[in-house]
Amino acid sequence: MSTISKNSLKSSLLQLECHFTWTLLKQDVDLDELEETIGDQIEFFIKSNITNYNLLSYVCHLKNSNEEALRNLQKAEEEVKKNHPDEIARRSLVIWGNYAWIYYHMERYEEAQTYASKVENSCKKLSSTAQQKIQLPEIYAEQGWALLKFGRKYYQRAKNCFENALKNEPNNPEFNAGYAIAMYRLEDYSYRLCQDLGPSLKPLERAVELNPKDTFIMALLALKLQDLERADEGERYIEEAMQKTPDLPYFLRYAAKFYRRKGELDKALKILKKALAVTPKSTFLHHQLGLCYRAKLFQLKKTTRYPPQEQVEELIRLSLFHFKTVTGQKTKFFTAHTDLANMYAQAKRYEEAEETFQKAFQINILSCVDKQYFYYNYGNFQRFHMKSESEAIKYYIEGLKIEEDSYVRKQCENALKKLLEQRIQEGLGDATDFATLGLVHNLNGETREAIKCYEKAIALCPDNEEYLSALCELRLSISS
User: Considering the chain, what is the average pLDDT of its residues?
Assistant: First the structure.
């Protein structure tokens, strides 16, 4: 094939709506883990698997298994014939787009061209204006589902896709479910301080109303009601869903989370073990088991003055086992890494804790809130386990310097203030402590309190240029 025709083929491929043009980057996910998740969903969800086979095909390509990718596209085609015999062209546009791209990467350019032309011709028939792009609601939805699978960086785009799908079909149960999941996850991860916790409530209620058989969505609704301190209402949904799908692992994992957060740890453990028997490699389930054993450990320490050492060690061992299982399989699961590091600290295995904290911080997809969470946890590790207040102060400040308003930033601020004020009250406060407290007030826009602190710092260390400069700037900001 000549360079010119190869370039024109590439430019026509870039016009296609499919996984290859949706900017789904392999560095943002663990491909083996994603492949397994999709495989489990194909096995346990009864609904049409066109979307799953299509995505699985793209994942296989990213793992350099193009033959396997083609086999999955064939399965997607079979699903279309079975579920949409009257709309084969319309329902195959994404599949054909993926075929074209895979053949292109295999240097089978004629076949790539054939599929690109199939898409173009079908689009012309389906729409009077479009060439290779056509804005069908099911394509927006398919893009939304793929984006959800690629992690939190993609959730906002997923939400936008489902919104676009709903413009044409506002009562479509699947599109409503996708929109509700995207909203729930965005809320779950942003965990903002100053925002309403409930925007996902209405979409979740709507999705359950449109498809009362979808127990996965029911469980998310129950967790959202629990967030909003309406746990009794939430529990009714969990109980109803348990009647409908007592063995569905995707429902059970959230039911267990509900009971763990409620403090019914034995009930949560029983549900998790049942789900694990069905999907033994699920990192979500292993993480939840680790959290349950950790909660039992804290409960034991809180309620027993001298907890039996044997019991303490067993709960630590179980928690470590499950957290290690998760981090071994899912190298980018940030919270699991920090949970593991904190559990090593509980076990007084400080070198392993340090090593795991460093691994957590090196994950390449951390959000601002993740970084704040790291600094808060690492600050606590330095303070309570390494007994180094100066190091703790340093890391709390790093968390505070990231200005994203979040619950964990507030935790950094409270921990820092408490520690500095304690040092000052005990007569241990030096100029650095007063200046640091001044910095905390300044970062929070509390200018007058900041000035007082810097004045005290300068009284103890009169020639410090940094303190004098900060004080001068603060005074100027008031006078202007």
Answer: 93
* CB atoms inside a 10 Å sphere around CB 450: 24
Query: Would you state the structure tokens that stand for residue 326, as one six-digit string?
Result: 């998760």
Q: What is the C-alpha separation between 451 and 432, in angstroms, rounded? A: 14
Alpha carbon distance 23, 21 (integer Å): 6
Cα 410 to Cα 191: distance, rounded to the nearest angstrom: 12
Two tokens, residue 173: 């149960």
Handedness of CA 319, 325, 328, 331 (dihedral sign): negative
Residue 394 burial (10 A CB sphere; 0-12, 13-18, 19+): middle
Q: Which amino acid is residue 96, in one-letter code?
A: W
Return the amino acid letter for 10: K
- At residue 1, the pLDDT reads 64
Which residues, other chains included, contact 242 with Cβ-Cβ below 8 Å and sequence gap of 6+?
251, 255
pLDDT in tens, 37-50: 899 898 887 566 99
| Confidence at residue 193, expressed as pLDDT on a 0 to 100 scale | 44
Q: What is the full DSSP assignment across 103-119?
A: HHHTT-HHHHHHHHHHH
Classify each residue of 427-441 as buried b or exposed e, where b means 16 or more C-beta atoms within 10 Å of its C-beta: eebebbbbbbbbbbb
